[in-house]
Specification:
Elements: H1 8-22, E1 27-30, H2 32-39, E2 47-50, H3 54-60, E3 64-68, E4 73-78, E5 81-87, E6 89-91, E7 103-105, H4 109-113, E8 123-125, E9 131-133, H5 137-143, E10 145-146, H6 152-158, H7 161-173, E11 176-177, H8 179-187, H9 197-209, H10 213-222, H11 238-250, H12 256-266, H13 274-280, H14 285-298, H15 306-311, H16 316-325, H17 330-341, H18 355-360, H19 368-382, H20 390-400
Parallel strand pairs: 2-5, 10-11
Antiparallel strand pairs: 1-2, 1-8, 3-4, 4-5, 6-7, 8-9
Helix pairs in contact: 7-9, 7-10, 10-11, 12-14, 12-16, 13-14, 16-17
């Protein structure tokens, strides 16, 4: 296969490959960028592999940074853009199921590609546009198959995270997992307990955000790997996962926070356990706060009225998307949108009467009483009992007293 037109990111990096070739070494674009280019998908990181050793790369280029030189990676700086160039290498045993015990630099592209995870990720592209396909990855791309390079058990034993990556690619590309690869994935799923939660979280989220998320999740269910993921998700009832699958079939999720909220709404995780569940998955405080704010409303534990929606105004975009995803009826969604649109204030800082001004009026002294009064005023403004005007608010306070 020959590529005639390179995407812009690769076209800009071709001079790097050519300069390495002119120095007497081999150089190729490798990995996901080659796969996505062939599929016609947007490409992201451009990775380069070369027969040149790190010190040789540093001799070829004037501006380099040792980003991972012990693993053979040197960043070449060209016109203020950095390109990571990694030496062809082989890897020894993986006693921790993640990192090789030893990395050996080699001159052979074949040796380098055969250590990669899946055939569709083991493609290489030369500067002249020639695609090097040593493991029939192009056929698997046409068939829509995720197949391990070589022995799938060996690949998954080298790095157990590849189990999650197979599921993620299934969701991302809408590909099936080849039978032998699926069998090995199922058999070795317990090894996921040896992988850092943060790394599992990233792949799990990419699966949920994939265009074919339901396919990826179904593969995860079929292989029973959820039992080895954080938070006890493997113990959730099958009916919960079936409902999640139905929703994923209907709509694609756009944000990480929304993915977790939609899982939690349908899950058996109690409201008071939401934070601990998400912390077990190593999620950010922002995601935890958003989930704690929205899950009770989406579960129907809190009514869709003006006061409750005002309290989650900062999350209105996520709330509306979740309502669509969870199948709320159109009237409820329109009502929520109208309430958000017509809120008299968006937060307490927009109140026309501050605590200091309230004290200056002589109607209240500093302390808990003032805080409670300000909260009552805020609720009165939000629910339309009193206009957000200083005189009206002071009159309301006098009336309340």
């Amino acid at each position: 296969m020959k590529i005639d037109q390179f995407p812009s990111q690769m076209a800009e990096a071709r001079p790097i490959l050519k300069k390495i070739e002119n120095a007497g070494y081999e150089a190729f674009f490798v990995g996901g960028a080659v796969r996505d280019m062939i599929l016609g998908d947007p490409i992201h990181d451009v990775d380069i592999a070369s027969s040149a050793f790190p010190q040789e790369i540093k001799m070829i280029f004037e501006n380099t940074v040792d980003t991972g030189i012990q693993h053979g990676t040197v960043m070449v700086l060209d016109h203020h853009i950095g390109y990571e160039v990694t030496t062809f290498r082989t890897e020894s045993t993986y006693t921790d199921y993640r990192r090789p015990d030893k990395v050996t630099f080699v001159r052979s592209l074949n040796e380098d590609l055969k250590r990669r995870d899946f055939t569709i990720n083991a493609l290489a592209l030369k500067a002249n546009g020639e695609v090097v396909d040593l493991f029939d990855g192009l056929t698997d791309l046409k068939k829509g198959l995720i197949r391990a390079v070589g022995d799938p058990e060996e690949r998954f034993n080298e790095d157990a995270l590849r189990i999650m990556r197979a599921i993620r690619f299934s969701a991302q590309l809408d590909f099936a997992i080849e039978d032998q690869t699926k069998t090995a994935l199922t058999d070795l799923a317990p090894n996921l307990t040896k992988i850092a939660v943060e790394r599992i979280q990233v792949e799990f989220e990419k699966m949920l955000l994939g265009p074919a998320a339901s396919r990826g999740l179904q593969q995860a269910l079929d292989s029973h790997l959820l039992a080895y993921l954080p938070g006890g998700v493997g113990r959730w009832p099958l009916t919960t996962w079936q409902e999640i699958l139905t929703n994923l079939n209907r709509l694609q999720i756009s944000q990480v926070a929304i993915a977790w909220i939609n899982l939690l709404v349908l899950s058996p995780v109690a409201e008071q356990e939401i934070a601990s569940f998400l912390r077990e998955w190593k999620l950010s405080r922002a995601v935890i706060k958003t989930a704690q704010a929205l899950v009770p409303i989406l579960r129907g534990q809190v009514s869709l009225d003006t006061w409750h929606l005002y309290q989650v105004e900062a999350y209105q975009e996520q709330l509306i998307e979740c309502m669509y995803f969870l199948g709320f009826n159109k009237a409820e969604i329109v009502l929520a949108q109208q309430i958000f649109e017509h809120l008299p204030i968006r937060n307490a800082r927009q109140m026309a009467l501050s605590g200091q001004e309230l004290m200056q009026s002589g109607l209240v002294k500093p302390g808990p009483e003032m805080g409670e009064l300000l909260q009552r005023l805020e609720k009165a403004v939000v629910t339309g009992k009193v206009p957000n005007q200083q005189a009206a608010l002071l009159a309301y306070v006098r009336q309340e007293k």
